[in-house]
Amino acid sequence: MTSVTRYTVIGAGHGGKAMAAHMALMGLDVTLYNRTPENVAGIKRRGGIELESYADGPHGFGKLRLVTSDMGEALAAADVIMVVVPSTAHASIARKAAPHLRDGQIVVLHPGRTGGAIEFRKVIRDEGCRANVIVAETETFIYASRSEGPAQARIFRIKDAVPLAALPATDTPRVLDVLREAYPQYIDGVDVLHTGLNNMGAIFHPALTLLNAGWIEATHGDYQFYIDGVTPSVARVLEVLDRERVTVASAIGIRARTALEWLKLAYDATGENLYDAIHNQQGYYGIKAPPSLNHRYIFEDVPMSLVPIAALGRRYGVSVRAMESIIRLASIVHRTDYWRRGRTLDKLGIEEFSVSELTHFVREGAVLVG
User: Fold this and answer.
1) How many CA atoms are closer than 13 Å to the CA of 145, on its beta-carbon side?
2) Percentage of residues in the chain with pLDDT exceeding 90?
C-alpha cells in the first residue's frame, strides 16, 4: 500500500456522490465509478462534485482525480474500494470487479445489509479471482444524504459511530486502521454476522410498508410513515419480527440488539413497547411514507435482508413464520419470488455449515463449501 491511500467510490447515487465529494474535500485521492456514463457526465465535465451540508458540516467543491465508467480503469490505482450501491447490485459489482482486483486491496460495502460481504467474496471467488483482497461491510450507511443535481450532493447528517466488520474478522483491525484517516467514526463491528443481524431496516421497512399498502397507494405516501403508519397492531407485528431476528442471532451465538435497545442507542427514544418508543422518537415526525410500493423498502430490504435472516432461522431451527409471511406478502404484491431472488444460504455458500463452522468462517476464515 502506498503512503497516500487512493480511494475508488463505486456508485454515483446520492450516497456515492456524498462520500466521493466529502473525501475529496478532506484532500484524499478519489476516483468515482458509475456504470452508466450519462449519469456522471456532468461530474466528469466539472471534474468534481459540489457538496452542501448542515451547519458546520463539510461543504464546497470536491475535486476528483478520475470519473469513469470503466471498471478496470476505476480499480487500477485503488487501494480502497468503497461500494456505495443498493445491496441488490453487490453481486453484479463483484462480477465486474473480479478480473481487476489485485493483492492488498480493500473492498468495503456501505452497507452490507445481511450477508453482503459473504456474497461478495463468494462471487469474486466463483469468477476466478484469487487476489488477496479484504472484503468488509458496514452495519449502516454513515451519511444521511441526497442528490441535489447532476454534480451536486447534500449531507444532512454524519453518524457518530458505525460498526464495521471484515471477512474474516481478523482483518477488521487492518481495515479500521486504513480508513481511520478518512473515517474515525468506524468502530469494530465484531464480525459480519453481527453487522448483518443488527440490520434494523429488515424489521422496520418491509412490514411497515406492506401493512400500510392501502394508505400508500391511496395517498401516494402523503402521511407520516412512522407516526401515522405505526399503529398498535402494526407495532405488534414489528415486535414479533424483531423477536425472530434476535432469536436467529441467539441460535448462532450472537447477542443482537433489540429494536427497543437500538432506538434508545441511536435516538435516546424509550417506551414500554415498540409503539411507544417509535412515537417518542422526535426525528420520525415529518418523515413521509414511500410514494409507491415500488420502493427499496421492499425490493431491496426483503431479498437482501429478510430472506437471509429467515434462511439462517430455517437452517438453525428457529421459527421465522412472521418473516416468511412478510416475504410471501412482498412476493405477491410485486409478483416476484423473493426467496429465489434473495440471498439464500446456497448463494452465500454457507448452506452446509454448522454453527461452529459458520462462526469460524466469519471470524477466522475458512474454505467456502462448493
Assistant:
1) 30
2) 92
